[in-house]
Amino acid sequence: MQGENTIEKVRCLIIGSGPAGYTAAIYASRANLHPVLYTGLQMGGQLTTTTEVENFPGYPDGVTGPVLMEDMRRQAERFGTDMRFGIVTEVDFSVKPLRVTVDGEKQLEADSIIIATGATARYLGLPSEERFRGLGVSACATCDGFFYKGKDVAVVGGGDTACEEATYLAGLCRKVYLIVRKNYLRASKAMQDRVFNTSNIEVLFEHNTKDLYGTDMGLEGAHLLYKIGTPEEKEIDIKIDGFFLAIGHTPNTEVFKKYITTDEQGYIVTEGKSTRTNVPGVFAAGDVMDPVYRQGITSAGSGCRAAIDAEHYLAQL
C-alpha cells in the first residue's frame, strides 16, 4: 500500500475528459502507454450539457451529448485507461519527470502529459440562461442551429464570432436578431458587410438582455433593455425560439500558464501542425488550444494526434 507522501509515477497523464481527452486515452491505451486520465470537474466536458448531437460521424440517427461521452469513456476504459475523478490544482513543468498535484494533495510524476481541459463558454450570468440551457439557450450555432430551422432566433455579441454565427443561422432560420451592447460592431469590415447585407438579420444596437422567458417546454422570448441609463431607456420584448451566446470562450489554462505558452486569449500555443507545446513532453488537444473550430469531432481528432505525438516522444526518451 502506498504511503500518504508516495509520489505515483505515470507514463502518460491525460488531463480532461471531453472528446479530446477520451480520444487521446483510446489511442494512448492501444499504444500501451498505460494512460491515467483525470476527468476534471465536468466529466465528459461541454458536450454533456448539450442535448441532441447530430453532426458526430457514426451516429446516423443522432445521439445525446451525455450518451456520446459515455460511449467514448467506456471505449477508453475497455482498452485499459485508468479513469479517475479529480482536478489538477498545481503543476511543475520545470522538472523531469513532470510533476502534477491533484485536488491539492495527491502528487504524480509523469513522463508525458496531454492537456485536454477544454474551454468554458461565457454566459451573461442570467438565472434564466441556466433554466433554458438545452431548451433554447446555446453557445454554439454550428452545433445547434439546425434545430431552429425556419424559426426566429437571437445571437448576442458584436465581434467576428457573433457576426459569423448570425450569418450562419440566417441561412437556416426565418429571422435572426443580433443583440449588440454598443452602438457599433467590433467585427472586421468584411464580417460587418455580410451581416448588413443579409436581409433576415436585424441588428439591435445598444440593447442588453435583461431576462429570458418561456415554459418548461422551452424558450419563448427575451426581455431587452434599450439605451440603459439614458432618458431614452425602454424595455422591449422579442419572441424567439433560440438564444445563442457568442461573447467568447475562456480556455481552462490558468493552472498551466506559468510554464506553457498561451496566446493573448489564453489558448495554448502548439508547434506547427503538431500538438507539442513549448515544454517537451507536454501536449495539448481540443478546445484548450483551438479558438477556431470548437467542434466535438475536431477535438477528438486533435486528441488522436496528441496521443500519437506523446507515443513518439516517449519512444525517443
Mean pLDDT: 94
**Considering DSSP H and I runs of 4 or more, what fraction of the residues is helical?**
10-25%
Structure summary, number of beta strands? 19
Shape: elongated
Largest sheet features: 7 strands, mixed
End-to-end distance, in Å?
29 Å
Runs with pLDDT <50, length 5+?
none
Q: Give the percentage of residues in beta strands.
A: 25-35%
What's the total helix number? 7
Order of helices and strands: EHEEEHEEEEEHEHEHEHEEEEEEEH
Helix/strand/pairing class, anyone?
alpha/beta
Question: Topology, pairings included?
Answer:
Elements: E1 8-15, H1 19-30, E2 36-38, E3 52-53, E4 63-64, H2 65-78, E5 82-84, E6 88-92, E7 98-102, E8 106-115, E9 119-121, H3 127-131, E10 137-138, H4 141-144, E11 152-156, H5 160-170, E12 175-180, H6 189-196, E13 201-205, E14 207-215, E15 218-226, E16 234-239, E17 242-245, E18 249-251, E19 282-284, H7 296-316
Parallel strand pairs: 1-2, 1-8, 2-5, 8-19, 10-17, 11-12, 11-17, 12-13
Antiparallel strand pairs: 3-4, 6-7, 7-8, 9-18, 14-15, 15-16
Describe the protein.
The protein has helices at residues 19-30, 65-78, 127-131, 141-144, 160-170, 189-196, 296-316, and strands at residues 8-15, 36-38, 52-53, 63-64, 82-84, 88-92, 98-102, 106-115, 119-121, 137-138, 152-156, 175-180, 201-205, 207-215, 218-226, 234-239, 242-245, 249-251, 282-284. It is an alpha/beta fold and 317 residues long. Strands 1, 2, 5, 6, 7, 8 and 19 form a 7-stranded mixed sheet that branches. Strand 7 and strand 8 (106-115) form a beta hairpin. Helix 1 (19-30) packs parallel to helix 2, helix 1 (19-30) runs parallel beside helix 7 (296-316) and helix 5 packs parallel to helix 6 (189-196). The radius of gyration is 22 Å and the shape is elongated. It starts with 7 loop residues before the first strand and ends with a helix. The mean pLDDT is 94.
